[in-house]
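Title: Prediction job returns without error message
Component: structure pipeline
Severity: low
Priority: P3
Assignee: unassigned

Description:
Job completed but the reporter wants confirmation the result is attached to the right record. Sequence as submitted:
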Amino acid sequence: MKLKILIIGLLVSIQVMAQKQQKQNVQVNSDKQLNIDWSKYKTYTWASQVDSKLDAGIYFLNDLVLKERIRNAVGYEMDGRGYEKVSQSPDIIVNFRVFDQPTTLKGYTGYGTSYWGSQEVRQPEDTTSYNVERGTLIVNVIDTKSGETIWRGFASGLMNGTTFNKEEEKIKEAVNLIYQDYPARADNLGNKK
């Protein structure tokens, strides 16, 4: 009996360590445009491919369940930051994608605000490149008036071998980690400078 309890305890310990290791393997990063007045953004809507039943937003699996899980997780984060989802005249459009191949993303960050100050002017050669793995989830927030991406967050390390880990809790965790660096709230509670 004691041996049976010991074995069960050992198996549970191994599973917990494996889950912690899996959480640690998710790599998250984000990038934003400088000099944005975040207080003007109060409402959002989904990009057309995210909101449709067609699967244009998920390039990795053609999986509507995965698309719905990501949309729910991102929507939860937006709603939790005080943004209102509207169908007419939104301030921002939210889009996401899962990459089926490794790729390079171009970011906004150059030397950083600590080098140039908060009024940094960026040139094309000042951008940072992010090399991301196959299966990376990227979330873009686009200003509807300018059509420009004002914030981008992404998470790599969401693969189980050769397949995307589409477990609901893993997706929620990854999206939550992405949004930990989101720079503002629509309700202005605890906005980052």
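Comment from assignee: result matches the submitted record. Residues 16-24, 55-61, 110-122 have pLDDT under 50 and may be disordered.
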